[in-house]
Amino acid sequence: MELPFAESYKIKMVEPIYKSTREQRKEWIKQANYNLFNLRSEQVFIDLLTDSGTGAMSQNQWAAIMTGDESYAGSSSYYHLKDAIKNILGFDYFLPTHQGRAAENVLFSVLVKEDDVVPGNSHFDTTKGHIEYRKASAVDCTIDEAFDTESLHPFKGNLDLNKLEAVYSTHPAEQIPMVIVTLTCNTSGGQPVSMQNLRDVHTLSKKYGIKVVFDSARFAENAWFIQQREDEYRNSTIKEIVAEMFSYADAMTMSSKKDGIVNIGGFIAMKDEELLKQASVFNIMFEGFNTYGGMAGRDMNALAVGLDEVTTGYYLENRIQQVAYLGNKLIEWGIPVQKPIGGHAVFVDAKKFLGHVPKEEYIAQTLAIELYLEAGVRGVEVGTLLADRDPKTRENRYPKLEMLRLAIPRRTYTNNHMDVVAVALKNIFDRREEIDHGYRIKKEAPIMRHFSVELEHAEKGRKK
Ligand SMILES: *Cc1c(COP(=O)(O)O)cnc(C)c1O
């Protein structure tokens, strides 16, 4: 028999998690105003809200924590991180920030102004937030296949070059501060961008004199998919692929909480010293002095080790295998998910799952609440709540896809936990017709409402 897959690590330290009853969960989710962000972690059994900062560090990362240098200026930890960014990603300059959105805030303070247009592949919510906050607009140029969950396109994160060129040719270059390529594309289901597409976006952008910026939170997972799915790269190492990927970028923002495999941190890296100088002004104001920028020295040390670990094939194989394990179980049972399975999460197609719940009642949120009630599993809505209102008309924006995202923390849960998640979804799928209402908004914030929105059962407000 062929030997089954098993992880290339064993567990040195364990953290308890808590089971609960359906009755308890019913009460807790009501108290949380049906917003899963408002639950306490002890009220959750398996937490798939996000893979951001929720992973387990390795023994080498913990060892690096102990040798962190907390000097305000010129810390050796800063130089360890600087070397890792240069050697692995190829950027000469970088600024540490406290997390990814802080990197966006600093970089966009330099680059984005009112009425600007920023094309990209389904911008991440904080990225879009930082663009719209500056009264500029984000234009989605993702390929159409990304919005068909059944399409087996291997690179659903790709940008459609025609859509991109349409933006470039209808706006003056001064109005387009950059194109943002998100690797992997979170919003479209953790879907990768091909090397060919990165190369083409770079060539087209240079023709029009536009900067290329990578939103790089899951760059290593993206490199894994290039190695697996793009023939030319089958025999390349992950580090070789990563180096070529970033050769097509002028700058990058990073949420180190993802593929840095640390619990907090971020950075901006760039090739142009002038951009570094301009961004430094904002970094010092918002984040901290340039050699720590909101990070402790020990965390920069752990991040330097994390960047090395995340770009090894053995780490990525473990990571992607676990996500695929959950995804394939759901596919086997006929549960509609974004295919092929992405790098960090399984995205359940809530419109197909709960087709009878009206879109005005937040279909994916309804499914997220059901999953919590069923098994104490916390996923997250990637749908109408997240899409927010149009900044001009204030109307709800109904995205093409309503997804329930199940993000898998790195090196944290076992496949037994994945089995619980899969069976819980199967149980809901089998009784889906009985779910006869969604939710309506009681209270919401003017921007990025999904974090704090308060909901109630829709039947209460439904017109008879
Ligand atoms: C998480 C993430 C961000 C924001 O990073 P934070 O560290 O959460 O502030 C930006 N872009 C992408 C693609 C992300 O996944």
Structural class: alpha/beta
What is the residue-averaged pLDDT? Answer: 95
The largest sheet has its strands arranged as 2-8-7-6-5
Low-confidence stretches: none
Pfam families: Beta_elim_lyase (PF01212)
Domain Aromatic amino acid beta-eliminating lyase/threonine aldolase: 47-423
Modified residues (N6-(pyridoxal phosphate)lysine): 258
Family: Belongs to the beta-eliminating lyase family.
Molecular structure report:
The chain has 464 residues and is of the alpha/beta class. The chain folds into 2 domains: 22-51 and 314-461, Aspartate Aminotransferase, domain 1; 59-310, 3-Layer(aba) Sandwich (Aspartate Aminotransferase, domain 2), CATH 3.40.640. 39% of the residues lie in helices and 12% in strands. It is built from 16 helices and 14 strands. The protein has helices spanning 22-31, 59-66, 76-89, 100-111, 125-133, 161-170, 195-207, 219-229, 238-247, 273-286, 297-310, 313-332, 350-353, 363-375, 384-387, 415-430, and strands at 46-47, 93-97, 117-120, 137-140, 179-182, 212-215, 251-255, 266-270, 345-349, 377-378, 380-382, 403-407, 439-443, 454-457. The strands form 5 sheets. It has a 5-stranded mixed sheet with strand order 2-8-7-6-5, sandwiched between helices. Strands 9-12-11 form a 3-stranded antiparallel sheet. Strand 3, helix 5 and strand 4 (137-140) form a beta-alpha-beta unit. Helix 6 runs parallel beside helix 7 (195-207). The structure holds pyridoxal-5'-phosphate. One of its GO terms (molecular function) is carbon-carbon lyase activity. This is Tryptophanase. The modification N6-(pyridoxal phosphate)lysine is found at residue 258. Residues 47-423 form the Aromatic amino acid beta-eliminating lyase/threonine aldolase domain.
